[in-house]
Amino acid sequence: MATAMYLEHYLDSIENLPCELQRNFQLMRELDQRTEDKKAEIDSLAAEYIESVKNMLPEERVEHLKKIQSAYSKCKEYSDDKVQLAMQTYEMVDKHIRRLDADLARFEADLKDKLEGSDFENSGSRSLKKGRSQKDKRSSRSRGRRASEEDTPKKKKLKGGSEFADTILSVHPSDVLDMPVDPNEPTYCLCHQVSYGEMIGCDNPDCPIEWFHFACVDLTTKPKGKWFCPRCVQERKKKK
Fold first, then answer.
1. Is 232 annotated as a binding-site member?
2. Per residue of the chain (240 residues), what is the pLDDT tens digit?
3. Nearest to 199 by CA among 165, 231, 174
4. Is 64 annotated as a binding residue?
């Protein structure tokens, strides 16, 4: 898996990081201690100089001041070393952060490519299902427009494996919107919902909707003879 690969490589790259950080921090502590020792030495030399400066010869004063200056120089050297070490430590950690950012960017790009490829396959599958459903609807039109348990549009199965029809035959039409529905399930009727319960087919071969729920067209039983949906009835009246 790509995630495991990126993670494994990154963990390998930071395997020695804790030891390197510990060594640098230890060196910085040592430099701190040396600096504090030098500061104490400078304070002692300064106090000694102030106390005995009046009794010192000019050469002794110069020598004493040189010692103080040398201690200050050494203290500054330790401080510079500590700053350089801190910058080195920062760069060390920042390098791994940049590496992690780069790996995350590559992983996101790979994941995006895979998702786009998966969406393409799913869209192709949906197109195939849609083509099949249209073919089924055309064939059902040629067989006649009578509602029965045999010629009602097929119910699709839910993820649990039970048939959609078994779940909703006893459900009131107003409750259909609350039921889990396959997004690829074709819709029918004036309510634009999936097939459920008893349905009747319009006898107009050019009807754009074809199938209707009994409740949506105020039917309780299958009528005798030909039956036309409300839209087709209006169209037929206009033509007359």
1. yes
2. 555 666 777 778 788 888 989 999 999 999 999 999 999 999 999 999 999 988 889 999 999 999 999 999 999 999 999 999 999 999 888 888 888 888 788 778 888 888 877 765 566 555 555 555 555 555 555 444 444 444 445 444 334 444 434 443 444 444 444 445 556 677 888 888 877 778 899 999 889 888 998 888 888 888 888 899 998 988 888 876
3. 165
4. no
Within 8 A by CB and 6+ apart from 204, the residues are 145, 228, 229, 232, 235, 236
**Centroid of chain to Cα 47:** 67
Confirm if 197 and 190 have CB atoms less than 8 A apart: no
Flag whether 75 is marked binding.
no
Residue type, 143: R
The phi, psi pair for 98, rounded to 5°, reads -65, -40
pTM of the model as a whole: 0.42
Token duo for residue 11? 């963990």
Q: Which one, of 146, 155, 135, lies nearest residue 211 by Cα? A: 146
At residue 51's C-alpha, the angle toward residues 45 and 55, to 5°, is 110
CA distances from 58 to 54, 203, 235 (A): 10, 126, 124
Q: In this structure, are residues 82 and 28 in contact, taking their beta carbons and an 8 Å threshold? A: yes
